[in-house]
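User: I want to check something. If I give you two sequences, will you return the structure for each one separately, not as a complex?

Assistant: Yes, each is folded on its own. Here is the first sequence with its structure:
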Amino acid sequence: MQIDLNPLAYFKELHLVPRAIFAIGGVFFFSGLVGRNVELILFGIGLIFVALAWNLVLNAFWSHPYDGRLQFWWGGLAQAIPIILVGLLCIYLAAYMYRHGSLPPYFQRALPAKPNNSP
């Protein structure tokens, strides 16, 4: 048994296009961390989730090893749907924050009114 010590060995299972989108999302995520920009962080997370969902959809189709028939794995689609929804939500929030400067009103926490302690 050979152990692969390459830190990028986990990405061997990803297809080419999802791997590229995942890497671009990672660059946006880490540049947002360095620049302390929430929009870039959300956009990077959204791209990462979209790439993971795309890879799950691609892995849902596989050919049978003995007769070559195309098979479909419903579990891959069931996992891809919530992941793509979370990714699209992150991208939507990043675009909204970039355009308006704050979160949408339905995502903001309702703050209690400050009590008036003046005599």
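And separately, the second sequence with its own structure:
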Amino acid sequence: MCSRSQLRRRLGCHVLCFAVAALLPEEQAEAEPNTAPSSLETPSVVVSFPRCEADSFPLAVFLDSLRVELTGRDLHCCTLAEPGDFTHSNASLRVNLMQLGSCETELDRVRISVQKPDESRALERELSLSDVEPSARPRALALAVAELIRLFEQDTRDESPRPSRVPPQPTFSAPKQPQPEPPIPAATHTVPLGYSVHIEAEGRRFPMRHTTAWGGRARLMAIRHSFHADLDLGANYSDARVELGDVVLKSASIGVGFGPRFATRIVIVDLGIRAELGWAWVHGKAAFPDVQAGTGSGIHSSAGFRVSVEGPTAEKVRSGIALESGATLRSINGDVGGQNAMGIAGYYLLAAVGFGVSL
């Protein structure tokens, strides 16, 4: 039999074991929340957009297209931010879009830059959207941004150091010549030149010879950014009635011109100088049998200043008007009885109406 003191010691040991067993689960339960790993937020692409285009440019269409292009990557697209705002801590990449030019014009040229928020190094590209239809510009801009993000991630992977399991052994060899880096492809392909064809009906007045010539002209125009160059072919007809009969003047000419081009949301304005070289035929029609009619031909040339306006800008087929004024450099006249009846001489005024088609 156990004594009373032994019984007390055994009872105290059992109580102590039960107390320790009861405390252990609580400690483990309290330790589990501290040791559980915290969930990581999905990295996000932060896009800053020009303020002046926030209302006019279809931003929602651009973001939807960019979200489709970034599908399959570990990136959340997209979070909008004000230009210069770096408060997004979960941003993996930051895309900055900057309009080149005035806010009064459409988003024709834009600079795209991609960088990490914690790094100053960035990959930049300039994109021209002037030759892209306005309805397709959000899609084209999204393709360019997605391609630039892919190139930036590729450069980051190439530059990041790779850990080695086996420490490298020292070797002694001749230094290698640095290899040139392969050229980075452009973010998107843009057409370098745009073309348009114009058909015009024109009237030209020579006040010094009291001659008005009517005709038509076909014009081919090449456009690059804010500059245009023209090549045109035309023909004109004029007649004058005098006491002894009629005098008829016909001419065919070729012209060239160039100058600045200004495009707004509504109209396109072309300014420039123009030179023309042609050949004219003059012949008379006698009103009496005893009057002898003559014929003649020769070269004529002129130079002047031209301004034309056409619109609407977004349409492929646009109507327009043009005004031109200049001086005749080489003239040709139709004389009757030793007096000038009509001719191409002196200064001239020209007005034309027609339409243009973008190719």
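Because they were folded independently, the notes below concern the second chain alone. Residues 22-40, 185-191 have pLDDT under 50 and may be disordered. The radius of gyration is 40 Å.
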